[in-house]
């Protein structure tokens, strides 16, 4: 038997630690033992990186039906569940003409809608369009200025260029995925194999190419790694950059507040917050200087939108036949999220031992998603690196992601009109999919809360006994743990 991370190497091997992996290992000889062979080249890092590349490649295969039709043929994007924002935004936001997202040019603004994403994603989308044009031989843009946006979307040459744009982004997002997986293997040197839960996650394969969320995911993985290495300055910089790409990394500061309060690490907290603010400001400054109006679009767009896809607010408004205003939903979301954060704060401060960064981060971000007025299918990526470190158990991760897979299929079928009852009316199955998704997420939340309240149940800190017959059952007499946060 070849071992890629035997206990004698200081690694917790999943075949001795996780009940699901232990059971599966029986088909190839059983759990790793003390006499297992070793392959020096196949380190956990290299294996996890290959897993991440394989998982992302599967996601690209899943998108193949849309690539063949350049995302414009009939309802394939919904029936085959291969939708992606990237090809549409390439033309609809003016990247086909190398339009800078933060320009006040009147002709550009009359022709193209503003980019409704934070600056990090806008920079990425614009930068990859420049790479696409360079790879395509720097085509003459003058004829495009004379075409309508609708004509640009159907022009054969531009359709081919759009495919190239998607390919360029796919390569970039694949590298981000591999980087995130590699960083996660380094968070806890004893448990590098926990990152395999990220690399092989069904949700990663299905949603990685829907939008550019993996940019923020990689930065969050970097922040988890930096905090584990006791580098608060770098942690703050990565959180600030992540917040410039997506808002949710900001909420990780709440988890660090709890940890630093319990461990009296006020200086570290100040360094993290200060460096995060500086990184965020410096990243946003070019966009704001170029056009304050365009920079504000992200904030105004999210403030003014109503109940949207995936949210419990959509279920309430549709099922209850209610007309909830954006202000009502904003106030309700803010209230519930504030109460959720207060609960996480109390849980963290009153827990028997200092919770881990990943646990607190997961709980805060999960609360935000559960009460937010939009819960797009790719938002599961926000939770993924936090979840696999907070509760590294294959059974629990698969239960949670089963709800995500159900929702992933349902949202596209809903948008394609395939879930509409034959006699008309609302698509009740879509509401059920939203509720099931939330229930599966709450299941994982409950397990993480239990691990915080009963730290001897936390699989990350519990020592592994190779002779234990049931590796999923905690040793009840394990009462000591280091208060130093593992991640």
Automatic annotation (TrEMBL):
MF GO annotations: hexosyltransferase activity
Superkingdom, natural source: Bacteria
Transport is among the record's keywords: no
Pfam families with a match to the protein in the record: GT87 (PF09594)
Membrane topology per record: Multi-pass membrane protein
Keyword Cell membrane: yes
Location within or outside the cell: Cell membrane
TM helices/strands, residue ranges: 164-184, 196-227, 233-257, 269-289, 333-351, 357-376, 428-449
Principal place of residence: membrane
Family: Belongs to the glycosyltransferase 87 family.
Descriptive protein name: Uncharacterized membrane protein
Annotated organism of origin: Nocardioides psychrotolerans
